[in-house]
Design goal:
Blueprint lengths: L7 E5 L4 H12 L3 E6 L18 E5 L19 E4 L6 H6 L1 H22 L2 E7 L26 H19 L5 E6 L2 E2 L10 H11 L3 E4 L5 E3 L1 E2 H13 L7 E4 L4 E3 H12 L5 E4 L14 H7 L7 H17 L8 H12 L1
Parallel strand pairs: 1-2, 1-4, 2-3, 4-5, 5-6, 6-11, 7-10, 8-13
Antiparallel strand pairs: 9-12
Helix pairs in contact: 1-6, 1-10, 3-4, 5-7, 5-9, 6-10, 7-9
């Protein structure tokens, strides 16, 4: 695979929920894409619709290890490197906390060094978890956070904070041209039913008629961004050519309680499930809402998809999954619309 006149892009974590949608968006803009994924939480079925796409390749590899030699050859002149590789939901990243930390630190260092060597622009998918259980609301990029460095979520929270440190150190020493996105709660088709996230939990429980689990009294808040909007933000940030912006929040600033989310899903599915309370997990943030003024100013970006529209798409996708239909190609529709709107 040669880049020629088209961009050649490496997407680490490309078989995951976000990574697979990013691959779709990049291909829609004419890029050649190599997805690298160890398939720990990513799934081949997320990319099944690309199996015959000549501009796409999936490489089964863990970024903790060096990339295959052929990807580091002079023939593979990558223009951009996206690092989305890391388990991102608490049940998954806590299942192997050592690997989670190493993915964020060693894996990010490997990809930064790779980008430095070939002169590619580097993108780090960071997280709102670097703010911890925030004492500042909404969260701005200048807020340093309130993170428990020894708790059960620290492998991810501190891992991503360290990944940002490495990325900014490479930028400060002019070793790589970098972009950093701090991602807030995102949902949409291709989420895993077992990822433990609130949207997937509530939808799957409602569709199956099981009790809907709400932790605490349901008054904790989140801000939910539909996946096509987030990926549009990724693309805009990677393409940004102005002065180095530092980390940029990407998320939906519309805040609602977890209890309200459960009520909406119940109404939209017509489910007879009961809502039951469970104790709050350790270090679970009480409030979470991004300040996206910087993204609006620099990128002209803000979410466009309403919560009800995004939930309808996500509910339909999970219903297809339950019925065995599994419409793998369904999700790119809204993403392609976002790409077309940005190009217009």
């Amino acid at each position: 695979m040669m880049n020629g006149k088209s961009k050649l892009v490496l997407v680490a974590g490309g078989a995951g929920f976000l990574g697979s949608h990013l691959c779709d968006a990049l291909l829609s803009e004419g890029a050649h894409v190599v997805a690298v994924d160890n398939l720990q939480t990513g799934r081949r079925q997320n990319l099944r619709h690309l199996e015959r796409e000549p501009r796409f390749e999936l490489v089964d590899k863990d970024i903790i290890k060096p990339l295959p030699a052929r990807l580091r050859s002079k023939k593979m002149k990558f223009d951009e490197v996206f690092n989305l590789a890391c388990a991102a939901s608490p049940p998954h990243y806590q299942a192997d906390p050592e690997h989670t930390m190493l993915t964020s630190v060693v894996g990010t260092h490997n990809l930064l060094t790779f980008a430095e060597t070939i002169g590619a622009r580097f993108f780090l998918a960071s997280t709102s978890e670097i703010y911890g259980d925030p004492e500042v609301h909404p969260q701005t990029e200048s807020y340093w956070g309130n993170v428990n460095p020894t708790g059960p979520r620290a492998c991810y929270d501190e891992g991503k904070r360290a990944a940002e440190t490495l990325t900014f150190d490479f930028e400060r020493s002019s070793r790589a041209d970098v972009r950093v996105a701090r991602i807030f709660n995102t949902y949409g088709p291709r989420m895993r039913a077992d990822d433990g996230r609130v949207v997937s939990n509530v939808i799957c429980q409602a569709l199956s008629g099981d009790d809907i689990t709400v932790y605490g009294d349901g008054s904790q808040t989140r801000s939910f961004c539909y996946v096509s909007d987030l990926v549009d933000g990724f693309m805009r940030l990677m393409a940004y050519e102005g002065p180095f912006p530092g980390a940029v929040n990407l998320g939906n600033p519309n805040e609602l309680t977890v209890g309200n989310l459960a009520e909406r899903v119940l109404a939209m599915t017509g489910s007879s499930s009961r809502v039951v309370s469970r104790p709050l997990p350790v270090d679970d943030p009480r409030r979470r809402r991004p300040d996206i003024a910087l993204a609006k100013q620099l990128l002209g970006w803000s979410p466009k998809t309403s919560l009800d529209a995004g939930l309808r798409e996500t509910i339909a996708w999970f219903a297809d999954e339950r019925s065995g239909a599994g419409k793998a190609a369904r999700a790119p529709t809204m993403l392609q619309g976002a790409v077309a709107a940005r190009q217009a």
